[in-house]
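User: Assemble these into one structure.

Assistant: Restating your components, then the assembled model:
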Amino acid sequence: MAELEVSGLRYRYGAKQALDGVGFALPRGTFCALLGPNGAGKSTLVSLLTRLLVAPEGRITIAGHDLQTAPRRAVGALGVVFQQPTLDLSLTVRQNMAYFAALHGLPRKGLDARIDAALARLAMAERAQEKVGALNGGHRRRMELARALLHEPRVLLLDEPTVGLDAAARASIVAQVHDLADEGLSVLWTTHLTDEVRDSDRLLVLHQGRILADGVTRDIRGGQPLAEWFLTHTEAVT
Amino acid sequence: MSAYLGVMRAIMAREFLRFVHQRERFLAALVRPLVWLVVFAAGFRAALGLSIIPPYQTYITYETYIVPGLCAMVLLFNGMQSSLSLVYDREMGSMRLLLTSPFPRGWLLFCRLLGATLISVLQVYAFLGAAALFGVTLPGWGYVAVLPALIPAGLMLGALGLVLSSFIKQLENFAGVMNFVIFPMFFLSSALYPLWRMAESSEILHDISAANPFTHAVELIRFAAYLQLNSGALLWVLGWATALGALAIWAYDPGRALMRRKG
């Protein structure tokens, strides 16, 4: 059974159709890149998946729970890293993690160990007592990733998580999230940067609110470099 | 149930930590009513004769009269401040973290409201302490009796802030809130002058002031400070708090206004 399943999703802002019948399914342990130019509908899809918006049409299930009829269970199985940072800069890494844990109803008993384990997974253990404001961009992102894993979600959603990071931090976070998928997590990674997508990744291309392509990257791009394929098919202006 | 209380504790602790980190905000909340008490009241008392009106049983100084109104002003400004920080949270993204919690959104907003209200109440007590240093005091037990009046009044004004925050699209628009919400609410109320004085100059202004929920918050606090219950004011305040709270939950519903704008 798919860990994340979306079908017939439509959403409009006034007259503008932002999503028009989007559907896909992610099995367990898949790293799926959702590639689309600016304005393709990626942010809208992320808002719908996280229930910041509710779609009038279509269905989303996360770990088998329908987001409309069982929102608590569905959202509880989802880890999210938003494009915009969502950290309290004046609080420490541990305080930020603990706040998130409470928002997800995790028990206080054993929480410290859980936070330590999540930070250690992302090689951030020694930063636990530091104020988030003192961390660099790469470390903040890693902390957000560690936090998104705190409640042991089955699906991980990352919305353009490398925005504003330098090349080394980008490469490191791309590699870490691929490792998480290898460990069995289903990952949906939205981006407009083709170099973040590996040939073996599952690829969804979103364009003008519709799924333009869905498959393994190397099959989709054929003999062309992905960047070239993407530009030709989306007529993106660079 | 303990998970619900855990969320409440975490949201309130976060509000408190943020408050502790913003010393300027605390000082502004303390200085603002003190300026009214010390400067405005000194200039104004000669112009305004007060008769004996409930809950007072004797002639009082003008400073004594405006203390409950200034307590409510602290709650009003703090409610708006909380609304401002919600808009800020939304711009900074941390609102998303709150709204993507699996707990019901109404509960999350209520916790946030309660946290903001408790901080408002602490600020009122700081103001009352400073006012006492200037020789303006309440009856001894009034300091205790005023607490159950401050909480519903703070909830009502905080809920107003929540509603406004759902309609304010950007931080820059906050100046409009000052002009169109805070000032009319404060001046068209019994905070600075009894309503019968207002009636002498304009019946319409009197009627507007009498209907203003802020007037009822002020009177609830005033009566409680003098160990009396103004049940009419309490009903108004509770009614408005409930209505504004419900409106805030409606406005923050994921299918509706708040996040409907793109991005």
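Confidence is low (pLDDT under 50) at residues 257-263 of chain B.
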